[in-house]
Specification:
Blueprint (H helix, E strand, L loop, with lengths): L8 E6 L2 H11 L3 E5 L3 E6 L2 E7 L16 E4 L3 H13 L4 E8 L7 E7 L5 E7 L7
Parallel strand pairs: 1-4, 5-8
Antiparallel strand pairs: 2-3, 3-4, 6-7, 7-8
Length: 134
């Protein structure tokens, strides 16, 4: 069973480590945990994100949210709002949103999609009903 001391881990490709650091640290406010010649590890909202250098991962075409993306489902609306303000303040490129999905249903939630410099798509969201966070 996962405890509060455990971290979820996800790894994604990046074509440029410097651009990944700029986006995740100076854009989204993630903390730089470790940097090597072939990868960068971030404290990404309390979990571990690793961007592995893959020079063939140069973006070609437009990023698409489906079928592959990752991100954070915020438990508190205030945290989602804070992220929206950060995205606006730092003028991060938005793939889509902010939107309200499934309006008027139990699954209603606010969402925003971003793409990092290697077209890895991130979704941040908040459900009004806290039972749907997972």
């Amino acid at each position: 069973m996962r405890s509060t001391h455990d971290a979820f881990h996800v790894a994604v490709p990046t074509h440029n480590l410097d651009e990944a650091v700029r986006f995740y640290v100076f854009g989204l406010g993630a903390k730089l945990a470790r940097r090597y010649d072939d990868r960068v590890t971030f404290d990404f909202f309390g979990d571990q994100l690793v961007c592995h250098l893959d020079e063939s991962a140069v973006p070609d075409g437009e990023p698409a949210a489906y079928p592959r993306h990752f991100g954070v489902t915020f438990a508190r609306a205030e945290d989602f709002d804070r992220l929206l303000r950060l995205v606006e303040h730092r003028k991060l490129s938005v793939l889509s949103g902010p939107d309200t999905r499934f309006e008027g249903t139990a699954e209603q939630h606010r969402t925003i999609f971003l793409a990092d410099p290697s077209n890895n798509v991130l979704e941040f969201k908040h459900y009004e009903d806290p039972r749907l966070q997972y």
